[in-house]
Amino acid sequence: MADTDLIKRDAVPAVSVAREPTVVVDDVHIVYRVHGAGSGKGSATSAMSRILSRKRGAGVREVHAVKGISFTAYKGEAIGLIGSNGSGKSTMLAAIAGLLPTEKGGIYTNGQPSLLGVNAALMNELTGERNVILGCLAMGMTPAQVKERYQEIVDFSGINDKGDFISLPMRTYSSGMGARLRFSIAAAKTHDVLLIDEALATGDQAFQQRSKRRIDELRGSAGTVFLVSHDNNSIREVCERTIWIEAGELVMDGPTDEVVGRYERGERP
Amino acid sequence: MSTVSEPVSLSAPRGADAGLTPKQLADKYGLSVSGARPGLFAYTKQLWARRHFIWAFATARLVAQYTDAKLGQLWQVVTPLLNCGVFYLVFGVILASKQGFPGHTYISWLCIGVFVFQFTQNAVQSGTRAISDNLGLIRALHFPRASLPIAFTVIQLQQLLISMVVLVVTVLAGGIKPGKTWLLVIPALLLQTLFNTGISLIFARIGSKTSDISQLIPFVMRAWMFLSGVMFSIQDKIQTWPHSIQTIMALNPASVYMDLLRHAFAPIIYNKHQAVHQTLPPHQWTYGIGWAIGMFVIGYVFFWKAEEEYGRG
User: Transmembrane region positions (chain A) (predicted)?
Assistant: First the structure.
């Protein structure tokens, strides 16, 4: 089936050519279980009575964060995810990265998606230099590759623009510096699917420009990029497709201009 | 072109794929379930590919441990020395457990016990926190999670090797001459490292699910220490006990590895001195090998079984 499709490629108009999917999200539900919510976990007597009464799941509250979202992402796409705070965007990304179990439905991906978030700190007590090396090794690079890429990563992050900061522990970095370094480490490798959670908004103007170019390069090397952001301008600049999520449900999935436009005007379809 | 107001148009498969359900589409292009656990063999391969990471992580952590301290890396040597000092004061001088040991060998005997037991104790304690303390790393990057407990065991091994330098000085100062049996230290430590890796993997999985366990661990470890005969000869104390309990005590892995190392370093205590009933039964090496391989295999499989769940929720 795929073979005949390849042969016919030139003959059919671009719109009807089968594209290669990289992420298939099929009617996904995600439920968080929060332990010890509600009536006091802190008090010893309540903990004791919980144990004595052998009531499992007492004090566990369920939060239905994603309620039946489906979409398919294709090779070379950059997709923005927008929605108000707590709408389930970051949860959706974590699930695509395989870090959250789905309650129902399935998420199928090409290779291993990599999640890049501002909250995902590396090791704070170690120097930036060590973090670069460890991050690269953890992503599966060989020591030789790390050596080759090291300077490139440091230059890209711009950490050393204002003095020798790379040899200081990461806990001394500002949040922007930390986020820049983390992005630079993650972007040093070509990923089949790269998931970015608000990382672009933290850097300065020059770094944001560099990141956008790098994301374009990553897309060029046949990857798919997901971007979660509250900065509609960076979504407009990076993504041509946008998915609007609200209260765990998919509101709209379409070209960025239209979806973001509607989102800004607050017009739900 | 289709109209842009069609909300699902960008998602729907086109051309030859049109009409496929998401599941069929995923199957056709060979997409896999995100975050699924790889097979045991594939997992081992991935882990082997991360060996440089494990080593670099362990070294970086070891160095970072004392960055805040003024004396810095000197603590690596001072900490084991102080440890020995305290135990010697309490058990050697005040409680006079050294009676019955030839010459000044008690201090060597004690230090070997302390270091060997702490090696396993630290493996359990750091294993318990290996996942929960590194959630940032786990949620940011993809790598086989077993890298972390293994790296922590490597840290303990590196620390032990530093302690070994202190130990060799202590042993020589205690009047024990180096001999051929010192070579046995290497296989004994390798076996214990393998055992520790296994136990660390087990506690890493337990600790990642139940953080309450870290409150309990210190008590369990203390009980284990007293039952293993770190500061006094346990063989001496239990010889009047029922045979079945003696057998169980003899199987205690901490005692097994302590005996192996004590015998390797100071055979004089075992050969010439029967007063404290120190003997090295020939099956001690068999027990050591059995514990090492058994614990490693069980721990590795046990940890791998929950691979996709670490760092979730």
Answer: none
CB interface of B with A, residues 131-160, below 8 Å: 136-137, 139-143, 147
> Does residue A217 lie within any of the structural domains?
yes
The amino acid present at B56, given as its one-letter code, is A
Residue A157 counted as domain residue: yes
Amino acid B44: pLDDT: 93
User: What was the pLDDT predicted at A99?
Assistant: 76
Q: CA-CA distance, B178 to A124, in Å (whole number)?
A: 44
Q: Is B122 exposed, middle or buried (0-12, 13-18, 19+ CB in 10 A)?
A: buried
> How confident is the model over B45-68, as pLDDT tens digits?
989 989 999 998 898 888 877 777
Using left for φ > 0, alpha for ψ between -120 and 50, and beta otherwise, residue B311 falls in left
Q: How far is CA B241 from the centre of its chain?
A: 31
Residue of B nearest to A63 (CA): B313
Q: Is residue A100 part of a domain?
A: yes
Distance, in angstroms, between A38 CA and closest chain B CA? Answer: 18
* Domain CATH number, residue A222: 3.40.50.300
A98/B contact by beta carbon, under 8 A: yes
Closest CA to B214 of B99, B86, B125, B93: B125
- Distance between CA A35 and CA A211 in Å, rounded? 38
Please report, as a single letter, which amino acid is at residue A130.
R
Q: Starting from the edge strand earliest in sequence, which strands make up the sheet with A21-34, in order?
A: A61-74, A21-34, A104-109, B32-33
- How far apart CA B72 and CA B77 sit, in angstroms, is 10
Q: Which ranges constitute the DSSP H helices of B65-133?
A: 75-87, 105-130
**Listing from the earlier edge strand, what are the strands of the sheet with A114-117?**
A114-117, A193-197, A224-228, A78-82, A241-246, A249-255
Per-residue pLDDT tens over the stretch B180-224? 888 888 999 999 999 999 999 999 999 888 777 888 888 999 889
Nearest alpha carbon to residue A206 among A150, A153, A151, A156: A156
**Taking CB atoms and an 8 Å cutoff, what residues of chain A touch B10?**
241, 253-255
What residues does A99 pair with on adjacent strands? none
CA B49 to chain centre: 21
Positions of E strands within B119-258: none
Range of the domain at A140: 76-265
Contacts of A78 (CB under 8 A, 6+ apart): A215, A219, A224, A225, A226, A227, A238, A239, A240, A241
pTM of the model: 0.80
Domain count, chain A: 1
Domain assignment of residue A53, yes or no? no
CA B34 to chain CA centroid, nearest Å: 31
